[in-house]
Design brief:
The protein is of the alpha/beta class. The protein is 28% helix and 34% strand. Strands 3-2-1-4-5-11-10 form a seven-stranded mixed sheet, with helices on both faces. α5 links the parallel β4 and β5.
Length: 254
C-alpha cells in the first residue's frame, strides 16, 4: 500500500473535519500571552501553519504574518483564505526541523500539537535550533504539546468516521506506551473533480509524547529561558490532568 504524505490529502477535508476547533479562542490566547509578558511583536512566524486558521486571524489584527508548513496542499488552503479577505501573508513550504527564511521574527508560534510531530528528542532539538536562529534577541517562542493523558483518554484505540458529500474518512489511533508514540491511520475517500467517483487515499501520522522536564531541559540547552508551562488557554500551571500544555520561552540575548 502506498501512503500519501501526511496532510497532503487531509488538506482537502481538514477545515471541515476541524470546524469544531475554536480558533478564535486560540488567537485570543496568543494575544493574551503577548499582553501578559508585555511584549509587542510586529513580525510573527506561524510554524506548521496548516490551513492558516490562526495565521490569517492574526494578520487581520495587524501583525505581519509569515506561515510555514511542510504540506504544500495545506498552505494552498491557507493562501485561499488570505486572498479571500485581502490579507497579504508570506507563505513558504518547509519543514520545522530544517527551515531557513529570509527574515527574523519577534515571535514564533507552533500550535495545535505540531511540536509532537518531532518524533524524538533529536528532532525536537533540531526544531529548537531553527527557531532560535529565526528569532530576534529576546524573541518569544510559544508552542504547545498534547499530553499522554489526552492521547490515552481520547484517542488510543478510538476510531472516528464521517461521511460528507465531497469526502468520507476513517480515523484510527493506536498509542504505544513503550515508546510514547501515537500512530494515526487516516483513510480518505475524496470525490474527484468531475463528481462521478471517489478516490481512496491513506495517510499515517506519527506523534511523539514529550515530558515537560525534557522539553524544559532541551530549551535551556538550545539557548532559551522557559518562562512558563501552562494548562492550555489559561495562566495556570500545567498539571497531571492537562490535555494540552502551552509553553512560553524567550531567546536569550547573545
Amino acid at each position: 500500500m502506498d501512503f500519501a504524505s501526511p496532510y497532503s490529502r487531509f488538506a482537502a477535508a481538514y477545515d471541515k473535519i476541524m470546524e469544531n476547533v475554536d480558533y478564535h479562542r486560540w488567537t485570543n490566547y496568543m494575544e493574551d500571552l503577548f499582553d501578559f509578558y508585555d511584549y509587542k511583536p510586529r513580525k510573527i512566524l506561524d510554524l506548521a501553519c496548516g490551513t492558516g486558521s490562526i495565521t490569517v486571524p492574526l494578520a487581520q489584527r495587524g501583525y505581519e504574518m509569515w506561515g510555514l508548513d511542510r504540506a504544500v496542499e495545506m498552505m494552498e488552503q491557507a493562501k485561499k483564505k488570505a486572498e479571500r479577505i485581502g490579507e497579504h501573508i508570506h507563505f513558504a513550504q518547509g519543514d520545522m526541523r530544517d527551515f531557513v527564511l529570509p527574515a527574523t521574527f519577534d515571535a514564533i508560534l507552533c500550535l495545535y500539537d505540531s511540536i509532537n510531530y518531532a518524533v524524538g528528542l533529536t528532532e525536537l532539538e533540531q526544531v529548537f535550533e531553527r527557531v532560535f536562529d529565526a528569532l530576534v534577541p529576546e524573541g518569544l517562542f510559544i508552542f504547545d504539546i498534547t499530553t499522554e493523558r489526552n492521547i490515552v483518554q481520547n484517542f488510543h484505540f478510538q476510531t472516528f468516521a464521517e461521511n460528507e458529500e465531497s469526502f468520507s474518512y476513517i480515523w484510527k489511533n493506536i498509542y504505544s506506551h513503550r515508546d510514547k508514540i501515537c500512530r494515526t491511520f487516516l483513510t480518505f475517500f475524496l470525490r474527484e473533480p468531475d463528481g462521478n467517483f471517489y478516490r481512496k487515499y491513506e495517510e499515517i501520522h506519527i506523534q511523539k509524547i514529550f515530558e515537560v522536564d525534557e522539553v524544559k531541559k532541551l530549551l535551556h540547552k538550545k539557548g532559551f529561558k522557559m518562562l512558563a508551562a501552562y494548562d492550555a488557554f489559561t495562566f495556570n500551571r500545567w498539571h497531571r490532568h492537562s490535555d494540552r500544555i502551552n509553553f512560553v520561552a524567550r531567546k536569550h540575548s547573545s
